[in-house]
């Protein structure tokens, strides 16, 4: 079985237009259902076994809340098989590159390469933020019905000033796009210039794998990682 089923140039062009328009697009058709099931099962297993509860706010993102349980890249390498193998796949990099219309690369900062996040209590949310690198591919392993939250909200074409994030102002001035998701979906987001959050859940459980990819100019540029380092730090150490 091929791990990745590339899109035709026409489909990739449509998907790219969606990324330009709303910052993200569902690209589940790039992967067969057995592969998406395997990634989902591993994420659910690792979140259950290793997830660490977080309840944080960051000045760099206007004190938006992060209420969640998560699993680090190091833990996934140690105890996972499918997720690290997928991330290493050249076919995956090619598929993402063909959709976004530029080459993408494994994230130079290893801890940000792939992480698992679980929202599991009413009010849990991955609050408004930008990511440190250009693109994320997010695999949805568990997700409540959109009526119970857990959908993604996005504002593309926005820049992250870590000293003055100005999120309230952006929210006042912008149209907020909404991406409803179902179990088994995979979506792609332009994460460095899209302000985004996961709408708080009211019930149910939402578990995802986030795989991050860098743009060419991010490979040598110095990038700081304050929010990611704090959000996935080792309890008692970070
Ligand atoms: O949970 C999601 O769908 C998005 C997660 C996210 O934005 C992140 O991990 O940076
Ligand atoms: Fe993000």
TrEMBL record:
Q: Which domain of life is it from?
A: Bacteria
Pfam families membership: HalD
Query: What is the protein name for this chain?
Result: Fe2OG dioxygenase domain-containing protein
The record's section on InterPro entries has: BesD/HalB-like
Gene3D superfamilies tied to this protein: q2cbj1_9rhob like domain
């Amino acid at each position: 079985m091929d791990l990745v089923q590339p899109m035709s140039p026409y489909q990739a062009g449509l998907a790219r237009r969606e990324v330009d328009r709303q910052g993200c697009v569902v690209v589940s058709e790039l992967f067969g259902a057995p592969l998406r099931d395997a990634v989902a099962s591993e994420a659910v297993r690792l979140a259950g076994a290793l997830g660490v509860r977080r309840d944080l706010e960051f000045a760099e993102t206007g004190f938006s809340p992060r209420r969640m349980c998560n699993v680090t890249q190091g833990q996934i390498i140690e105890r996972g098989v499918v997720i690290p193998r997928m991330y290493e796949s050249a076919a995956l990099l090619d598929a993402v590159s063909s959709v976004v219309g530029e080459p993408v690369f494994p994230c130079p900062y290893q801890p940000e390469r792939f992480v698992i996040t679980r929202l599991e209590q009413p009010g849990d949310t991955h609050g408004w933020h930008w990511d440190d690198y250009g693109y994320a591919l997010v695999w949805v392993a568990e997700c409540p019905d959109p009526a119970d939250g857990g959908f993604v909200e996005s504002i593309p074409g926005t820049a992250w000033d870590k000293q003055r994030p100005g999120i309230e102002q952006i929210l006042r001035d912008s149209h907020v796009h909404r991406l409803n998701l179902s179990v088994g979906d995979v979506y792609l987001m332009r994460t460095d210039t899209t302000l985004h959050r996961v709408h708080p859940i009211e019930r149910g459980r939402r578990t995802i794998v986030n795989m991050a990819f860098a743009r060419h100019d991010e490979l040598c540029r110095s990038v700081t990682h304050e929010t990611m380092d704090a959000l996935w730090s080792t309890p008692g150490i970070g």
